[in-house]
Amino acid sequence: MRTYVALLYSIILGEGRRVVMSNLKAMAERIGLKNVRTLVATGNLVFEARTAKISDLEHRLEKAFEETFGRHVDIIVRGAEDWLKLAAGNPFPDDSADAADQVAVRVMRRPAPVEAAAALQAYAAEDEKVLLVDGDIWVVFSRERPSSRLLAAASHKRMGIGTSRNWNTVRRLAEMVGSRQ
Fold first, then answer.
1. How far is residue 79's CA from residue 173's CA, in Å, rounded to a whole number?
2. Contacts of 67 (CB under 8 A, 6+ apart)
3. Which of 22, 63, 101, 129 has its CA 20 to 30 A from that of 122?
4. What are the φ/ψ torsions at residue 21 (nearest 5 degrees)?
5. What radius of gyration do the chain's Cα atoms show?
6. Which of 144, 140, 101 is nearest to 120 (CA)?
7. Which residues does 106 contact at the CB level (< 8 Å), separation at least 6?
8. Residues 150, 170, 159, 131: is their CA dihedral positive or negative?
């Protein structure tokens, strides 16, 4: 058995319909995943499964989600070792220490092309940073502005399938999978 992290892209199903984490956990258990745990109510799963291709796990989870909740959601899966590598590769440790909620990583299903990540820099404010690390896009958002043009610019259409998590979530997921290694 190996430990994996699954990140749901968006679990907003419409007015009055939100995904309860206990229901998400039950869905994952129904398809045979073991020791399923959730982190915050935004669609983060840690689970164990027999060694499998990442794409197969993503497909199984997406299919089960659609059958259970009636809507397709992109789900990105990483093995525990890859998640720990992602967390250790945070290129903005000082910013993360100062304001962890302002540092985020867009975890990509397939590595973001260098030119796509570089194009994001055009949307960054003076006090924002963008960096591509191992195919994922790390961002430090402005502390001065409540909204950033980077969020809209980092869409599926421009970057490919991926989902963002702030440093607090990345770190806590790393702690969860690290304790299972």
1. 12
2. none
3. 101
4. -60, -30
5. 16
6. 140
7. 112, 136, 137, 138, 139, 154, 159, 162, 163, 164
8. positive
- 3-state percent breakdown (helix, strand, coil) of the chain, nearest 5: 45, 25, 30
Report the alpha-carbon distance of residue 24 to residue 41 in Å, rounded.
10
Q: Given this model, what pLDDT does residue 97 score?
A: 92
What is the tens place of the pLDDT at every residue in 119-166? 888 888 888 899 999 999 999 988 766 667 877 777 666 788 899 999
- Rounded CA separation 11/128 (Å): 27
- What are 63-66's contacts with CB under 8 Å, separation 24+? 64/27, 64/28, 64/30, 64/31, 65/8, 65/24, 65/27
66: which 2 tokens? 């659609």
pTM: 0.90
Closest CA to 46 of 59, 33, 65: 33
Cβ proximity of 169 and 100 under 8 Å:
no
User: Chain-wide mean pLDDT for the chain?
Assistant: 88
Residue type, 20: V
